[in-house]
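Lab notebook, bench 4. Continuing the backlog of folding jobs that were queued last week. Each job is logged with the same field layout so the records can be merged later without manual cleanup. Today's entry covers Nitrate reductase, a 240-residue chain. Filled in by technician R.K.

JOB TYPE: sequence-to-structure
TARGET: Nitrate reductase
LENGTH: 240
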Amino acid sequence: MIALCVIARLLDYPDRALFDHRQDLLDAVEAASELAPQYRIALAEFIDQFCARPLLDVQADYCELFDRGRATSLLLFEHVHGESRDRGQAMVDLMEQYRADGLELNSRELPDFLPLYLEYLANGDIERARGGLQDIVPILALLAARLQQRQSPYAVLFEILHSLSGADVEFENLQPQVAREARDDTPEALDAVWEEEQVKFLGEQGCASAQQAAHQRRFAGAVAPQYLDVAQATTRSTGS
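JOB STATUS: finished
OUTPUT FIELD FOLLOWS
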């Protein structure tokens, strides 16, 4: 499914190369026969509007949406296992699944990063792609509902993924649940998470002062932007 490659690229961290290859993306969408006509139009419109904006603004919006809080995280197991130990085993199992299908990771991304998973599915036949999407439909539906609530244009990408899966899920049924959720990307929510994790860390170490904690927080704030650049998720065939 060429549409999966296009959506994977659009869900990755936006860079200049993406904007420079806008026409290539549009040509790929036009050739994506697996897309229903209305979704082909919607995807082309998303690309046009996406690439018409200043790159720095698009990058800032991406980080605000996908890198702050967990509700809209693009790490699949974040929505299934959270911080439990089961997440580690799930990562191992997914890596083994990639290897069993002849692929090795060629990026610094975690194996459950959604754009990476979509590229993996795109490298197989249509049955595997559809089955792989059906495996994550509950996550896709929840993300679509949350993005719709936030009036994000990215929501349409998740609607298209749902349509490609062939599964029957009504996004509208999730809206009441999403409406009751507390936002986890506000400054107050992020501060609360940081304080909780920092207290646990200091308690485990038993030798850090409040002054050291304040210094660590200022230092983290100073260096965080350099880690916002998400490496492009790629896969390569084993032995290639």
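OBSERVATION: The first helix runs from residue 2 to 11.
SIGNED: R.K.
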